[in-house]
Amino acid sequence: MSDYQLVPVVSPEDWAFFHAVRQSELFARRPDIVYDANHPDDRTPRHFPLLLKFNGKRIGVARLDLLARGAVAMRLVAIERGEQRKGHGRALMRVFEDLARAKGAIRIFLNAHQSAVGFYESLGFVRENWVDPAAGSLGDDSVAMSKAI
Ligand SMILES: CC(C)(COP(=O)(O)OP(=O)(O)OC[C@H]1O[C@@H](n2cnc3c(N)ncnc32)[C@H](O)[C@@H]1OP(=O)(O)O)[C@@H](O)C(=O)NCCC(=O)NCCS
Protein backbone atom coordinates (compact mmCIF):
# COMPACT_ATOMS: atom_id res chain seq x y z
CA MET A 1 0.00 0.00 0.00
CA SER A 2 3.01 2.27 0.36
CA ASP A 3 3.04 2.36 -3.47
CA TYR A 4 0.35 5.06 -3.26
CA GLN A 5 0.96 8.65 -2.22
CA LEU A 6 -1.55 11.48 -1.96
CA VAL A 7 0.42 14.68 -2.37
CA PRO A 8 -0.28 18.41 -2.81
CA VAL A 9 -0.37 19.84 -6.32
CA VAL A 10 2.78 21.96 -6.43
CA SER A 11 4.80 22.16 -9.63
CA PRO A 12 3.62 23.49 -13.00
CA GLU A 13 3.72 19.87 -14.25
CA ASP A 14 1.49 18.81 -11.32
CA TRP A 15 -1.03 21.53 -12.14
CA ALA A 16 -0.98 20.64 -15.82
CA PHE A 17 -1.80 17.00 -15.01
CA PHE A 18 -4.43 18.02 -12.45
CA HIS A 19 -6.30 20.24 -14.91
CA ALA A 20 -5.93 17.82 -17.84
CA VAL A 21 -7.44 14.88 -15.93
CA ARG A 22 -10.29 16.98 -14.61
CA GLN A 23 -11.05 18.33 -18.06
CA SER A 24 -10.90 14.95 -19.75
CA GLU A 25 -12.66 12.82 -17.10
CA LEU A 26 -15.10 15.26 -15.49
CA PHE A 27 -15.72 18.45 -17.42
CA ALA A 28 -15.94 16.79 -20.84
CA ARG A 29 -19.33 15.57 -19.57
CA ARG A 30 -20.40 19.15 -18.99
CA PRO A 31 -20.16 21.11 -22.23
CA ASP A 32 -22.26 23.80 -20.53
CA ILE A 33 -19.38 24.62 -18.15
CA VAL A 34 -16.19 26.38 -19.24
CA TYR A 35 -13.37 24.89 -17.17
CA ASP A 36 -11.44 27.55 -15.26
CA ALA A 37 -7.86 26.52 -14.45
CA ASN A 38 -7.54 29.60 -12.23
CA HIS A 39 -10.67 29.05 -10.20
CA PRO A 40 -10.34 30.62 -6.72
CA ASP A 41 -11.74 27.44 -5.10
CA ASP A 42 -8.43 25.71 -5.93
CA ARG A 43 -6.40 28.42 -4.16
CA THR A 44 -8.32 28.83 -0.91
CA PRO A 45 -6.32 28.05 2.27
CA ARG A 46 -8.90 25.51 3.53
CA HIS A 47 -8.94 23.68 0.19
CA PHE A 48 -6.25 21.14 -0.72
CA PRO A 49 -5.81 20.16 -4.39
CA LEU A 50 -4.28 16.68 -4.43
CA LEU A 51 -2.56 14.23 -6.75
CA LEU A 52 -2.56 10.47 -6.40
CA LYS A 53 0.79 8.98 -7.32
CA PHE A 54 1.38 5.28 -7.90
CA ASN A 55 5.03 4.21 -7.83
CA GLY A 56 5.91 7.87 -8.26
CA LYS A 57 3.70 8.41 -11.32
CA ARG A 58 0.76 10.81 -11.30
CA ILE A 59 -2.46 8.87 -11.93
CA GLY A 60 -5.32 10.64 -10.17
CA VAL A 61 -6.71 13.88 -8.77
CA ALA A 62 -9.04 15.08 -6.02
CA ARG A 63 -9.53 18.06 -3.73
CA LEU A 64 -10.11 18.03 0.02
CA ASP A 65 -12.13 20.97 1.34
CA LEU A 66 -12.31 21.53 5.09
CA LEU A 67 -15.88 22.20 6.17
CA ALA A 68 -17.20 22.92 9.66
CA ARG A 69 -17.34 20.54 12.64
CA GLY A 70 -15.13 17.63 11.62
CA ALA A 71 -16.40 17.39 8.08
CA VAL A 72 -14.58 17.49 4.77
CA ALA A 73 -15.84 17.58 1.21
CA MET A 74 -14.19 15.44 -1.44
CA ARG A 75 -14.32 17.22 -4.80
CA LEU A 76 -13.59 16.44 -8.42
CA VAL A 77 -12.28 12.89 -8.07
CA ALA A 78 -10.81 11.25 -11.15
CA ILE A 79 -8.29 8.63 -12.21
CA GLU A 80 -6.66 9.18 -15.58
CA ARG A 81 -8.37 7.35 -18.43
CA GLY A 82 -5.90 4.54 -19.07
CA GLU A 83 -5.60 3.70 -15.36
CA GLN A 84 -9.28 3.34 -14.46
CA ARG A 85 -10.75 0.06 -13.22
CA LYS A 86 -7.40 -1.19 -11.92
CA GLY A 87 -8.01 -0.51 -8.22
CA HIS A 88 -6.45 2.95 -8.13
CA GLY A 89 -9.73 4.70 -7.30
CA ARG A 90 -10.22 2.43 -4.30
CA ALA A 91 -6.66 3.24 -3.20
CA LEU A 92 -7.30 6.96 -3.69
CA MET A 93 -10.28 6.78 -1.36
CA ARG A 94 -8.24 4.98 1.28
CA VAL A 95 -5.40 7.51 1.34
CA PHE A 96 -7.90 10.38 1.14
CA GLU A 97 -9.65 9.02 4.26
CA ASP A 98 -6.28 8.82 6.03
CA LEU A 99 -5.59 12.46 5.16
CA ALA A 100 -9.08 13.55 6.21
CA ARG A 101 -8.64 11.82 9.60
CA ALA A 102 -5.24 13.48 10.01
CA LYS A 103 -6.99 16.81 9.55
CA GLY A 104 -9.46 15.94 12.28
CA ALA A 105 -12.39 14.89 10.10
CA ILE A 106 -14.95 12.32 11.14
CA ARG A 107 -17.12 12.45 8.02
CA ILE A 108 -16.57 12.87 4.28
CA PHE A 109 -19.23 14.42 2.07
CA LEU A 110 -19.29 14.37 -1.71
CA ASN A 111 -21.53 14.83 -4.71
CA ALA A 112 -21.23 11.79 -6.93
CA HIS A 113 -21.77 11.68 -10.65
CA GLN A 114 -24.56 9.19 -11.39
CA SER A 115 -22.10 6.85 -13.06
CA ALA A 116 -19.89 6.72 -9.95
CA VAL A 117 -22.57 6.10 -7.29
CA GLY A 118 -21.88 2.34 -7.34
CA PHE A 119 -18.18 3.00 -6.87
CA TYR A 120 -18.77 5.08 -3.75
CA GLU A 121 -21.40 2.69 -2.38
CA SER A 122 -18.90 -0.15 -2.68
CA LEU A 123 -16.62 1.88 -0.40
CA GLY A 124 -19.22 2.52 2.30
CA PHE A 125 -20.71 5.83 1.20
CA VAL A 126 -24.45 6.26 1.64
CA ARG A 127 -26.88 8.69 0.09
CA GLU A 128 -27.28 11.65 2.41
CA ASN A 129 -28.31 15.19 1.66
CA TRP A 130 -25.91 17.75 3.07
CA VAL A 131 -25.64 21.50 2.98
CA ASP A 132 -22.92 22.15 0.44
CA PRO A 133 -21.37 25.61 0.75
CA ALA A 134 -20.51 25.34 -2.94
CA ALA A 135 -24.07 24.42 -3.95
CA GLY A 136 -24.91 25.70 -7.37
CA SER A 137 -21.66 24.65 -8.98
CA LEU A 138 -22.93 21.07 -9.42
CA GLY A 139 -24.77 19.24 -12.10
CA ASP A 140 -28.39 18.31 -11.54
CA ASP A 141 -27.43 14.68 -11.95
CA SER A 142 -25.13 14.52 -8.91
CA VAL A 143 -26.00 12.37 -5.90
CA ALA A 144 -25.23 13.69 -2.40
CA MET A 145 -23.38 11.08 -0.32
CA SER A 146 -21.39 10.76 2.88
CA LYS A 147 -19.31 8.33 4.91
CA ALA A 148 -18.30 8.30 8.58
CA ILE A 149 -14.57 7.70 8.91
C1 LIG B 1 -14.90 6.65 -10.60
C2 LIG B 1 -13.39 6.40 -10.56
C3 LIG B 1 -12.72 7.45 -9.68
C4 LIG B 1 -13.17 5.01 -9.91
O1 LIG B 1 -11.78 4.74 -9.92
P1 LIG B 1 -11.25 3.37 -10.54
O2 LIG B 1 -9.78 3.33 -10.36
O3 LIG B 1 -11.75 3.26 -11.93
O4 LIG B 1 -11.98 2.31 -9.61
P2 LIG B 1 -11.39 0.97 -8.98
O5 LIG B 1 -10.72 0.18 -10.04
O6 LIG B 1 -10.58 1.30 -7.77
O7 LIG B 1 -12.71 0.24 -8.55
C5 LIG B 1 -13.05 0.02 -7.19
C6 LIG B 1 -14.34 -0.77 -7.14
O8 LIG B 1 -15.40 0.06 -7.61
C7 LIG B 1 -15.99 -0.53 -8.77
N1 LIG B 1 -16.25 0.56 -9.68
C8 LIG B 1 -15.35 1.36 -10.29
N2 LIG B 1 -15.96 2.30 -11.01
C9 LIG B 1 -17.29 2.07 -10.85
C10 LIG B 1 -18.46 2.68 -11.33
N3 LIG B 1 -18.40 3.75 -12.13
N4 LIG B 1 -19.66 2.18 -10.96
C11 LIG B 1 -19.73 1.10 -10.16
N5 LIG B 1 -18.66 0.48 -9.64
C12 LIG B 1 -17.46 0.95 -9.99
C13 LIG B 1 -14.98 -1.48 -9.33
O9 LIG B 1 -15.61 -2.54 -10.01
C14 LIG B 1 -14.29 -1.96 -8.08
O10 LIG B 1 -15.05 -2.98 -7.45
P3 LIG B 1 -14.33 -4.35 -7.02
O11 LIG B 1 -13.19 -3.97 -6.16
O12 LIG B 1 -15.42 -5.09 -6.35
O13 LIG B 1 -13.89 -4.93 -8.31
C15 LIG B 1 -12.75 6.39 -11.97
O14 LIG B 1 -13.30 5.35 -12.74
C16 LIG B 1 -12.88 7.70 -12.72
O15 LIG B 1 -12.02 8.58 -12.61
N6 LIG B 1 -13.97 7.85 -13.53
C17 LIG B 1 -14.17 9.05 -14.33
C18 LIG B 1 -14.41 10.28 -13.46
C19 LIG B 1 -15.50 10.09 -12.43
O16 LIG B 1 -16.57 9.58 -12.70
N7 LIG B 1 -15.19 10.55 -11.20
C20 LIG B 1 -16.13 10.50 -10.10
C21 LIG B 1 -16.98 11.70 -10.16
S1 LIG B 1 -18.01 11.86 -8.71
Layout: helices, strands, pairs:
Elements: E1 4-8, H1 12-25, E2 47-54, E3 57-66, E4 71-79, H2 88-102, E5 107-112, H3 117-122, E6 126-127, E7 143-148
Parallel strand pairs: 4-5
Antiparallel strand pairs: 1-2, 2-3, 3-4, 5-7, 6-7
Bound molecules: coenzyme A.
Coenzyme A (COA) is lined by residues 25-26, 77-79, 84-90, 112-113, 115-116, 118-119, 122.
Name some characteristics of this structure.
149 residues, alpha+beta, Aminopeptidase, seven-stranded mixed sheet, globular, binds coenzyme A
Describe the structure in your own words.
With 149 residues, the protein is α+β, with helices and mostly antiparallel strands. It has a single domain, classed as Gcn5-related N-acetyltransferase (GNAT) (Aminopeptidase). The chain is built from 3 helices and 7 strands. A hairpin with a 2-residue loop joins strand 2 (47-54) and strand 3 (57-66). The chain is globular.
| CATH homologous superfamily grouping | Gcn5-related N-acetyltransferase (GNAT)
Which architecture would the CATH scheme give at its second level? Answer: 3-Layer(aba) Sandwich
Helix and strand content put the structural class at alpha+beta
Radius of gyration: 14 Å
- Helicity level, as a percent range? 10-25%
Number of alpha- plus pi-helical segments: 3
Distance between the termini: 19 Å
